[in-house]
Design a protein that fits this description.
Layout lengths: L3 H15 L6 E6 L2 E7 L2 H4 L6 H9 L8 E5 L5 H9 L4 E4 L9 H6 L3 E4 L3 H13 L1 H7 L3
Helix pairs in contact: 6-7
Length: about 140
């Protein structure tokens, strides 16, 4: 897989995992440049809102209109993060996988967001292993 932006999102996910957190990463791209990056920091910061996509948007700061951006995430965004995508009119989301978590794909599509699922084995394996080793933490993250 040679998508440099998804590779950057995967690198963010690995940072989170190395810190004892949930391995989900995200980057925001405009005009072929990363303008924001983040990863799930719920565990590290004891903050239930710090999902990868939210962290990425916070780190991007004020960027004016998002209508020419693409959000990359290693996992299909949940409703919290999909809500931010819809709220800010981010037109396209590229995800690493949705096998381990279906997320809010249909919600985003219903609001005109183009979704591209790369279905990357690397992303599936990282999440599968994490969920197997940390089921309580994972269920907390997805609100189960």
């Amino acid at each position: 897989m040679n998508d440099i932006f998804m590779q950057a999102a995967i690198a963010e996910a690995k940072k989170g995992l190395s810190e004892g957190g949930i391995p989900i990463g995200s980057v925001l791209v405009r005009d072929g440049q990363i303008i924001g990056r983040g990863y799930n920091r719920r565990v590290q910061e004891q903050n239930p809102m710090k999902h990868a996509e939210i962290d990425c948007l916070i780190n991007a700061g004020r960027v004016g209109s998002y209508k020419d951006t693409v959000l990359y995430s290693t996992l299909m965004p949940c409703y919290l993060c999909a809500g931010a995508v819809v709220q800010f009119n981010i037109p396209k989301v590229i995800v690493g996988e949705a096998r381990t978590f279906a997320g809010a794909e249909e919600f985003m599509r219903e609001h005109g967001v183009k979704i591209i699922n790369l279905d990357l084995q690397e992303c599936v394996e990282v999440m599968t292993e994490f969920i197997k080793e940390n089921p309580i933490l994972w269920n907390e993250d997805i609100g189960e």
